[in-house]
Amino acid sequence: xxxxxxxxELINRQGDITKQSDVDVIVNAANAQLRTGGGVAGAIHxxxxxxxxxxxxPLGPIQPGEAVITEAFRLPNKxxxxxxxxxxxxxKPEAKILGNCYREALKLADDYQMTxxxxxxxxxxxxxxxxxxxxxxxxxxxxxILPELKSIRKIYFxxxxxxxxxIHEEELKxxxx
Length: 177
Known about the structure:
This protein is an alpha/beta fold. 36% of the residues lie in helices and 20% in strands. Residues 1-176 form the Macro domain.
């Protein structure tokens, strides 16, 4: 389901973020060193190929809440934005740091004049952020920065699991009925 606000579509999709061929830039839930990892980062690195890690490592380490950009290599997108989300219960304040990930990624995509961006559910995997809380932070952070965006026209959440997709759909309906 898509929702339109400030001429920008917010869209939830269920699927594989590495296969979003209609999106300019995807977001990687990265580790601090920007190396191949598990979860979303592992899938993105495997799909993009070894050149991604070679391009990303010199940009690290990054701190929680920060974002950097690389080309997408073998992925069908133009770029990948790498964000380091907070480890739930360790990196404080979690909500502010997670919100920074979304804001910084959107600012970078807008600076690069991208029209579409796809996010995973940052920090909800091995970093332990509860999906319900993370979805609220993600959408509220995005809503707050929408008026500043100039080129972005579509913001996707690409969610692999049924439960994550359902939770994000419910949160989007709650914010924009």
